[in-house]
Amino acid sequence: MAEQRVRWGILATGGIAAAFAADLVDLPDAEIAAVASRRRESAEAFAERFGAGRAYGDWESLAADPDIDVVYVATPHSAHRVAAGLCLRAGRNVLCEKPFTLNLRDTEELVALAREHDRFLMEAMWMYCNPLVRRLKALVDDGAIGHVRTVQADFGLAGPFPPAHRLRDPALGGGALLDLGVYPVSFAQLLLGEPEAVAGSALLSPEGVDLQTGVVLSWDSGAMASLHCSIVGGTGGTASVTGSRGRIDVPSGFFHPERFVLRRDGREPEEFTADPADGPRTTLRHEAAEVMRALRAGEKESPLVPLEGSLAVMRTLDAVRERIGVRYPGEAVTAVTG
Asked: Which of 54, 77, 81, 98 is flagged as catalytic?
């Protein structure tokens, strides 16, 4: 029996929006109903490319469209609060790209707004929906390596990025931490929860964003995480989780892995590989499928990407930025209202 189709609206037409739309096309129960951009020409070209039913030249029209079940917000993260807030106030369910917003305060406002309007809201932390990452977490939760002692993860791009690039623009929430560091932090907190202590050090650009940042998180259990992100040096994207009775190594691309190795004390290493049926490692379809499952079930948030977890990650990112001295213009903005 066919599942009820879910009608998607896509807000913004950049690269991540195109990647998401391409994966939606491959989901038989998904329909791209409409797309919006601040430039109508961009929306129309996007709609033609991906078969969207309607194209809007402003965000408000998309938010007001009653024939949309959920909106995917794919703007730069500096605009997430405004775009997602607009959709939630209009009664739309929302999947919002990561990081949720620039800071904890804005994320708290979106969560409150979703609850006030009884709408579904989820951060697009696709790593949490990846089948192989879910398998890794299940092994850790089941005690396969004993009590977790350390987590290590890195994500860096070689660059160089010119000052005008969005990754170096303070007005767009630039820097390594929010764009890339959110992955190592989210990975550590997926396995250990919110840390009790946060330390950080960074190399800042002349514009005042972080070019590379090192983070150490600590838990009362004694566990620690050593994390790194960079936009001035390409890293391997590796991760390692060490426990009291073994270790799990992700050799590359830990947030969308092809494989990982479980090393239990006294046993031969076990390799876990991605199922080809799950699609390419870069697919965003797993998060889209999770949103559709949750909507059909009448859930207001996903158990895979819970809102409290996203709030906890934002608390950590705020704490890191406080320690490294990065602040974005316009963070003290008028509160989202219902």
From this structure: 98
